[in-house]
């Protein structure tokens, strides 16, 4: 006899789908369509410009739009293509893929991101970087505060130099048992990874995915403003480390003060944590780590405007030994470095080739985000509304002090960082509008870049739209609400310090 068929009312309703915030690619696609539609309503206008192409305050004037509906539809259709290799006509300033003039698209940055992805992936394939951090953690396992400081400092250095953030997700399997063995809780492990790398990215000095992309979009060198950003990193990193160490010591002294508590078995791990076998750092691993350090050191040397930095004159003649490199040369550098590391590590031709391809593939997402964001600026440029938007914002900041202007730029970027968690996309989208405002306020464009990256980095320390935060708390098995209770006092302190540095940078 067949079992009775359950009544329709007895059936369990399907589980409700949870809301998932759209990806950066989706957000930028929606932004593209929205800006294209708004271009029909915003009047065309233009500033007069100086010899360097900077807009001159007080010269804005309305112009007659020349685009037909078909032209605008074609711009929408070609926006990703123009965002990659659009050429700007020197006479009409229009951007298109088959015009004659200067490159307006982001092809240089696009290729640089792929080359950087290839290099980072090859380095990780050698096992040198994660083995080095594991060895550091093991040797300091009996000195808890020093271990926390060393791990966070290592993550912060990698964050400020090359945007090391998502890569921390691979270290939770090491950090969680290590911190529990020292008598800390899982929140300490999450703080080490999220805040250690996050504060480095917030204070990016030469991070190509943040500072590099933003500097390119702002029309300045990657090395411009590096002194201010380095000073921020030197202050904010110790503050963040001390915050985590202070909490860790409090939990070690009194486990009842842990904000996240302990899972079954967590407290028992303290007795067995010292039995972990020390990871071995071979000669090959040491050689790879030295090569990585030399490559990044040379990158910093090649992008810093040494003549301006040493003389204090913005228009100083470059020294003969000054490389003055930009993204095309840096893309070639990291591609060659990826091959060199692969050869030194004896990965073999087949594995090296596949690893380089895989690395470029893993980084295609931020590269596409840059391309799409640049495509939005092409639509605004061809519709001649960029200067109109700039003029409206100029009125809002006109008359403000340079320090207040820098803080306003920081605050304006906070909601943008939430909507577009991709630093590359956020920079490419915002900089063409924000950078010229610095010219009106008499502030260096490098200060605007620093304000932008600080806003993006500050938000990415806690917003749930980033894989680093939401993935990190999941791997550490800590509630997101618990993490917010842990981090909000630090966020308040960082907010005050950031604003102070921006005011200082804008006024000196």
UniProtKB/TrEMBL annotation:
InterPro entries attached to this UniProt entry:
C4_dicarb_anaerob_car-like, DASS-Related_Transporters
- This protein's source sits in the domain of life called Bacteria
Ranges that cross the membrane: 20-42, 103-125, 145-165, 186-210, 230-248, 288-307, 327-348, 400-421, 433-455, 461-480, 487-506
Which keywords belong to this entry? Cell membrane, Membrane, Transmembrane, Transmembrane helix
Gene Ontology cellular-component terms listed: plasma membrane
Its record classes its membrane topology as:
Multi-pass membrane protein
Against Pfam families, the record matches this protein to: DcuC
Q: What subcellular compartments does it reside in?
A: Cell membrane
PANTHER family, sorted: ARGININE REPRESSOR, BASIC AMINO ACID ANTIPORTER YFCC-RELATED
What protein am I looking at?
Answer: C4-dicarboxylate ABC transporter
